[in-house]
Amino acid sequence: MGCECSKLSSCCWDPQYNGAAPEVVNEENEDKSELDDLPAFREYSIETLRMATSGFAVENIVSEHGEKAPNVVYKGKLENQRRIAVKRFNRSAWPDARQFLEEARVVGQLRNQRLSNLLGCCCEGDDRLLVAEFMSNDTLAKHLFHWEAQPMKWAMRLRVALHLAQALEYCTGKGRALYHDLNAYRIVFDEEGNPRLSCFGLMKNSRDGKSYSTNLAFTPPEYLRTGRVTPESVIYSFGTLLLDLLSGKHIPPSHALDLIRDRNIQMLTDSCLEGQFTNDDGTELVRLASRCLQYEPRERPNPKSLVTALIPLQNDTEVPSHVLMGIPDVAEAVPLSPLGEACFRMDLTAIHEILEKIGYKDDEGAATELSFQMWTNQMQETLNSKKKGDIAFRHKDLRAAIECYSQFIDVGTMVSPTVFARRSLSYIMSDMPQEALNDALQAQAISPLWDIASYLQAVSLFALGRESEAQAALKEGSTLESKRSTNL
Fold it and tell me: Which residues form the Protein kinase domain (predicted)?
């Protein structure tokens, strides 16, 4: 059932759009290498996605669209350390399971470096979920409208426009010219700061599974007449995004067109961009936006001509996106704490000492549900199992520690990430790395932002010989630990 990614076109660049041919070949090779790393589209079980998102924890929500259409997107992590975005639809969104699977499989065959690609889906009972690549640097809306450190630079805004046009050109070439609800929230940034178009908008989004709808504040004129989105409607939405990039805020297209007709372009331009571009470049972008916003759909440009128009406007092309965006370089080594160093060296004695020193302070807030009967009949025995396990763990009596902690966990009246962490290390020290990994994942399911859980996953993966996955877990543990230290 999955698609064979290696047989798909991996790049939407056309050699005529670039300079020297060798540079194009190199870029294509880099893109192909990146895409080859993606797994083929597959179906996931609901249990796998529940574990990946720590039980669809609130802490892992990255976006939601209100109570009327509660299609929530969660960040998650699979056992192999791949970061994913999981979109969970409400139960009425896709009543026909067959239509949902067919639509997801078609979108899942697309593979391009300008998309956050669809990796799989889940269709069990009433559950309908999509699984995509996780983009770690937020949305265009966040960087454009709600920025904190710095406004988006002109060169980066032009790069966003080009990448989006290239994404639409690729999708159109693959027979997916329609896109649902194209807006600044649909453009996301990967860990290198490169903009990508979310694959979620390529899914049809209606109860009958056959048509598209839109929630855009500024709808294309033909949508108001027919209630249907066409490829030309997507170009209209692209025009509104060009206005967003130019102005740094939402401007109604009708108002923008009035300003353009009055040659009052200065009123359209974000004051934060002063001195960053020439009048000719600004005029050209405004002209392109106005073409996209034409009342008659047939008068709007197609994606290929958008790409052609945007390439000559690009500047600072040699500057990496993360530099323009002012975000950390993922290639830079993350400094390791003493615990991170111990995990990297597989110094189990040092890890044991650190876990012993930390104790149970990180269990605050862990879910605990106890009835009065539990207190009177089982609680003492449960707490005794934990106490015996702690004594055995302190003295490195690993077999006894595993047995006692297992008794505590199996009763199920209390949930403790620390107990799972301690049993995980006991398993590692007993040369049982797979069991250790399972416990580390359980610890993270209970406490999604707990750095200890990620560190222990790294140690387990190192022991299993899964080097690249272990490095990813180590990096995540270090990042979480750094964030926690900053917030103390």
Answer: 59-325
Q: What is the pLDDT of residues 309-342, one digit of tens each?
A: 999 999 999 999 999 999 887 766 668 899 999 9
d(CA 313, CA 59): 40
Whole-model pTM: value is 0.80
Positive/negative CA dihedral, 161, 163, 167, 173: positive
Q: Helices 398-411 and 379-394, interaxial angle, to 10°?
A: 160
The torsion angle over the Cα atoms of residues 69, 53, 131 and 229, rounded to 10 degrees, is 20
Nearest CA among 156, 222, 226 for reference residue 189: 156
Residues 193 and 139: their CA atoms lie apart, in Å, by 11
How far is the C-alpha of 178 from the C-alpha of 318, rounded, in Å?
A: 32
DSSP characters for 343-374?
HHHT-HHHHHHHHHHHTTGGGTT--B---HHI
Active-site residue list: 181
**Angle of helix 338-345 relative to helix 451-463, nearest 10 degrees?**
20
If DSSP states are collapsed to H, E and C, what string results for 207-233? CCCCCCCCCCCCCCHHHHHHCCCCHHH
Question: pLDDT tens-digit profile of 194-241?
Answer: 999 999 999 876 544 445 555 556 788 888 888 778 899 999 999 999
Q: Which long-range contacts (CB under 8 A, 24 or more apart) does 460-467 make?
A: 460/424, 460/428, 460/433, 460/434, 460/436, 461/81, 461/433, 461/437, 462/343, 462/346, 463/346, 463/428, 463/431, 463/433, 463/436, 464/433, 464/434, 464/437, 466/80
Are the C-beta atoms of residues 436 and 427 closer than 8 Å to each other? yes
Residue 447: CB partners within 8 Å, gap ≥ 6? Answer: 54, 362, 366, 417, 453
Tokens of residue 146, six digits: 């709600």
Question: Residue 411: which region, alpha, beta or left (left: phi > 0; alpha: psi -120 to 50)?
Answer: alpha
> Which residue type occupies 231?
P
